[in-house]
């Protein structure tokens, strides 16, 4: 299914996946047939800084992947600040919120996710926010500037990054995580435990198995959260960081197969072969684990965009990309290569320490004697090398990786 140079490709969404696909299509000479439509009124920008550097300094601006003249030179038409509201598969057209209609030969959905909300907080409340887009980050930054007491619902990556940033700014931070451990979906129990202890040692109030039962609301503001245990937590800012849901409404309305994500095959094709989907909005068969997954990461968005580009340019290659992820939480730089084994399935866990530094180590997870995942804490070199080992399918012996005097790099086969 290659796309002849005369046919148009419409990309719906302007996040990491869309930006990477634009780069690939431009390189393949298809820029001039590409239209990108994004509801945010910005060129595609880097989302990870929004919960990190962006919150720290008032002068920080969203960081675009590429400047506007790059899109002009590539011939890519960017329609920012408008959204696609309907897909007509028979007529091969999309309808925009602004009312216009555009024709496509190939359509790519890169619609990402939206922040999960709580029914009790759906009415506009001036001191409550979630964090997904640059506009949310601007709002949160302004709210934090005038706040002292910050309550964060959700102990996932984004909630904890915001918590660490606010704590470093001298705010009194409380995190309520409903599950028994932090970052439960994406980190091993051992890493969760380390992060919890580290944040608590640094003075953050982080509670697990803790839920908000009620919200006290006055004059359009939440003034306190009441926990399930009956404790009242007065607050100035409430951040809702309880995860994200895939943006599949368009795909569903168009009759594409969806199940907590747009289902795609190994070439990023949806149930309609002329409509592809990439990034956070997809669910796919992940090649390393053999599990059907939805991943929310820059790596996944970029790698799926590359696979989609190969499909669109007539050089299809089945998707296989090692999942990896990072998070920065105050003094903790977390980097994961591979996916942590499902609880109870890792038969061996090796801790590789960097000398005597307690805050710098890597967790090597083995399943049936095979290395499947490495989680590094303040050990970037371990992370980069482990990624290479996992991609190559090299599984070093546990007794080798535990020995920090053995350079991991030396375990990469010379031919690689
Ligand atoms: P997105 O980047 O979410 O982009 C989707 C875009 O599509 C949005 O702009 C949306 O407005 C637009 N859109 C949706 N529907 C329509 C429509 N109908 N019409 C037009 N446009 C539409 N990942 C990491 O790997 N490391 C990190 O440290 C990290 N930190 C993060 C911090 C924050 C605050 C957030 C929010 C995410 C973070 N992530 C991180 C996750 C990462 O940013 C996402 O995995 C990545 O952005 C996914 O890219 P995407 O293109 O699939 O979707």
Descriptive notes:
This protein has 416 residues and is α/β, with parallel strands linked by helices. It folds into 3 domains: 162 residues, 3-Layer(bba) Sandwich (FAD/NAD(P)-binding domain), CATH 3.50.50; 126 residues, FAD/NAD(P)-binding domain; 71 residues, Enolase-like, domain 1 (2-Layer Sandwich). It is 23% helix and 28% strand. The protein contains 10 helices and 26 strands. The strands form 7 sheets. It has a 5-stranded parallel β-sheet, covered by helices on one side. Strand 20 and strand 21 form a beta hairpin. The longest helix is centred in the last third of the chain and has 15 residues. 43% of the residues are buried. The model has no long low-confidence stretch (mean pLDDT 95).
List the helices and strands and how they pair.
Layout (H helix, E strand, L loop, with lengths): L8 E4 L3 H12 L6 E5 L14 H4 L11 H7 L2 E4 L3 E5 L4 E4 L4 E3 L2 E4 L3 E3 L12 E2 L4 H12 L3 E5 L3 H12 L3 E5 L12 H13 L3 E3 L4 E7 L2 E7 L4 E3 L2 E4 L3 E3 L2 H5 L8 E2 L11 E3 L4 E4 L6 E2 L4 H15 L11 E6 L2 E6 L10 E6 L7 E7 L2 E8 L2 H13 L5 H4 L15
The structure holds flavin-adenine dinucleotide.
The site of flavin-adenine dinucleotide has 36 residues, from α1, β2, α8 and β22.
- The fold-level CATH name of the largest domain is FAD/NAD(P)-binding domain
Q: Structural class given helices, strands, pairing?
A: alpha/beta
Whole-number total of structural domains:
3
Strand content: 25-35%
Which runs of at least 5 residues are low in confidence (pLDDT < 50)? none
Number of strands: 26
Question: Helix amount, in percent?
Answer: 10-25%
Q: Biggest sheet, open or closed, and with what strands and sense?
A: 5 strands, parallel
* Strands side by side in the biggest sheet: 3-2-1-7-19
CATH class wording of the largest domain = Alpha Beta
In DSSP terms, counting alpha (H) and pi (I) runs of 4 or more, how many helices?
10
Average pLDDT metric: 95
